[in-house]
Amino acid sequence: MTMTDPIDRRLTRCAIYTRKSTDRGLDEAVNSLETQRDVCQSYIKCHAHRNWVELPRRYDDGGYSGGTLVRPALNCLIGDIEAGRIDVIVVYKIDRLTRSLLDFVRLTEVLERYDVSFVSVTQAFDTSDSMGRLVLNVLLTFAQFERELMSDRVRDRKAAMRRKGLFGGGMPPFGYLVARAGKLVVDPERAPVVTELFERYPNSTVDRLVTDLQKRGLVTRRWVTRTGKPKGGQPIRAAVVRQILRNPLYAGFLVHRGELIEAQVEPLVTRAQWDLAQMMRLKRRVTRNPDRDVLLGILHDELGRRMGICGSAPGHGHKPRYYRGKDSSLSRRGDATIFVDAVKVEQMARSALKALLVDRRELKEAVLSLGHYSDEIAGLLRRGRTAAHRIDIMDGPQLRRMFLALVRRAEVTRSELRLYISCHELCRFLAWNGTGLFTTAPVEPARNADRVHRVTAPAHLVCGRRSYAVPIEPRLGPEGDVKPWLVDILKQAASLREFVLANRTRSMSRLADEKHMGRSQLARFIRANYLAPDIQAAIIDGSQPASLTAWDLLYGPMPLDWEQQRQLLGFS
Questions:
Q1: Per residue in 165-214, pLDDT tens?
Q2: Hey, what long-range contacts does 187-194 have (CB within 8 A, 24 or more apart)?
Q3: Contact in structure between 13 and 47 (CB atoms under 8 Å)
Q4: Strand 299-301 versus strand 259-262 pairing type
Q5: Please, which residues bridge with residue 309 across strands?
Q6: Burial class (CB in 10 A: 0-12, 13-18, 19+), 326
Q7: What span, in angstroms and rounded, lies between the C-alpha atoms of 32 and 26?
Q8: CATH 3.90.1750.20: which residues of the chain?
Q9: If you ran DSSP here, which 8-state letter would residue 235 be given?
Q10: For 308, phi and psi rounded to 5 degrees?
């Protein structure tokens, strides 16, 4: 009989699982495992009208406790479930499968994932019907209650240890070792490093301290987990140094509910040294201006993490503004942390919003998605260019409030920037008369008031819009203010593009070395070839905006949508 036979699909394949805690009597002809199997076989035969059939493979665990899931036959059973060979598991009693509610929850998750039922012969428990699922939900409720009780006990135990000044467990801080439960002893190898950091920090910086420690080859303590996985041994980083400087344990105190409690540990520094370090930390902390960081709280990365603002990128001495993902736990699991230049992404978001306002067709699609069709809506669409001009004259606080009102969410990936714009707030912005903040609302919010319109600003893909003619206007009159250095950028960009296309068999590094420039510099010049044709023509004619500089062409943000380029570079 083949696997494609329709009769096979109607059969319910049943696996019998048996277990006995001890191996006493297993060599007898009639033992506990055989008794369990006979009862289960009879139960399966009674359900022959439901096309239940017994699988020939035996799953017998003799001499294994039900308090653990580490059992050979059970592991084989789970493997066959994952392979799709089993439809129903039949046991004599529930405790034959497991005696732990927590383990039972784990097993039921596997069964539900692969659509496998569970039957207990001597108990009214069968997950293939509604009553069995009801009993399962009751057991899961008690399992959740048991887990919460365990969490409360662990939390209360740690709180009691902290009140007594004992270490609550986990990895010991840098400079200490765990001697016994709750007791920390000084690590003679790394304790002097902690003392040195507190002594040097008032007259130095974290970056200088980290550089010095890395030159000396200092690493974090190496250790092995219970599963045998090696941990630690990493170079000292800035995060480790900052954590050391703000930990009161080194001064002999623990934090419990916001209060400092004297700890039963030998301090490595004095209280005065620790207080001085905290004062210096607060003094050197970079204060954030929310009116300047216009996308703060709105911008997210491609992993869904909300992006905060930071002072500099790793390994750089200058301090530009950067947006980065806040949740570092994803980065520890192997997902890379994305840093985005704040100025560039804010300029790109601003130009993308202006491009929407001047694009009559896309603006119409966003406004009409609210379901309102009237002459008043047609009047709003004609005000798109006026609204785009208002964005140009906004200061920092106004721009911040405008983004908070219009943009529900912004996402930045390695290839594009996405803005999810509220269509209702977009209508209010179009009707805004320039006084107050969106004081008029011609379109009343209905059930679909939270409808959003997505605007995408490509970063890597060449995404020019389809047109029947190149958008280059004929030059009228004499040449304007031609800037030779801007024209030279376009000429060098065209020359380098031909050079790269003619030598595609060689790597970018070799091509850059042959031209006596770095890879990033070569890439910046190549990028200039993707400027809109009318922008290149304006630069050659000298009719470009007076504010356009060589930095804007080579180092500024460069969306590949032509309309966004015009808005960003001032060609609107």
A1: 777 767 788 888 876 666 788 888 888 888 998 999 888 888 888 888 88
A2: 187/221, 190/218, 190/221, 191/268, 193/218, 194/244, 194/250, 194/268, 194/269
A3: no
A4: unpaired
A5: 323
A6: middle
A7: 8
A8: 176-284
A9: B
A10: -95, -175
CA angle 205–335–554, rounded 5-degree value: 70
Fold of 6-142: Rossmann fold (3.40.50)
Question: pLDDT tens for residues 452-462?
Answer: 888 888 764 33
Q: What is the 3-state secondary structure (H, E, C) of 481-497?
A: CCCHHHHHHHHHHHHHH
The residue whose two tokens read 């405790």 is 95
Query: pLDDT tens for residues 353-393?
Result: 998 998 888 888 888 877 666 777 777 788 888 888 888 88
Q: Among residues 493, 528, 412, which one has the least CA distance to residue 459? A: 412
Rounded to whole angstroms, the Cα distance separating 506 from 520 reads 16
Q: Which pLDDT tens digit goes with each residue over 260-275?
A: 878 788 888 888 888 8
CA atoms of 511 and 504, how far apart (whole Å): 9
Q: Would you report the helix, strand and coil content of the chain in percent, each value rounded to 5? A: 45, 15, 40
SS3 of residue 281 by DSSP: helix
Give the integer Cα–Cα distance in Å for 339 and 521.
20
Residue 29 CA, chain-centre distance (Å), reads 59
CATH 3.30.1490.20 fits 176-284, yes or no: no
Please give the Cα distance from 416 to 265 (Å, whole number): 52
- Quote the strand ranges of 332-488, DSSP E: 339-341, 407-412, 416-422, 452-458
- How far is it, in rounded angstroms, from Cα 493 to Cα 219? 46
Phi and psi, residue 236, nearest 5°: -65, 125
